[in-house]
Amino acid sequence: MTKIVVFGASGQAGREIAAVAEARGHEVAKIGRNPGVQAAPEVAAGYDVAVSSVVDLSRDPAEFYAQAARSLVASGVRRIIVIGIYPLLETAPGVRVVDAPDFHAEHRPFCLGHAAGVDVLARSEADWLVMSPAGMFGGTSTGTYRLGAADPADKLTYADFALAVVDEIERPTHRRTQVGVASTQDHL
């Protein structure tokens, strides 16, 4: 049994991840979307894994995500899994979706805010992974998923995404990187 704390457990992704982890017999602490709690490193202390699925739209995204990452690193938790976003995935080596010239300018600050959090993790010695759902959430759960390259038209259910996250908690195969998660069926 793994001790897991899920930040953002009141949101759809966090709720599903916590439910799958509990169903598999893990000890799960669920922290709602409370930015003040997310910023407290002592909340994650003593857990084996911290899953972060948080957002605070009232704050500057770069400031918020960098602070959240610093808090998780400072907690000393053994493994950090951050729920990322598709635009930070690479379409070619060193080229992210967000870097495309036709990427929507109004979404860029939020995406770069997420990137600031990833940068904090990358500069740390922590064991971390960013798992980014590909494309859009939707469709019917298949009970399966695929990791790696994805297309913006891909769909993924919250339930299948939660399976991917908990599988990675139970059998860590990716470390100190970002990985995309998509449905195993094309365009559900």
Automatic annotation (TrEMBL):
GO molecular function per UniProt: oxidoreductase activity, acting on the CH-NH group of donors, NAD or NADP as acceptor
SUPFAM superfamilies: NAD(P)-binding Rossmann-fold domains
Protein name as catalogued: Uncharacterized protein
Native source species: Lentzea atacamensis
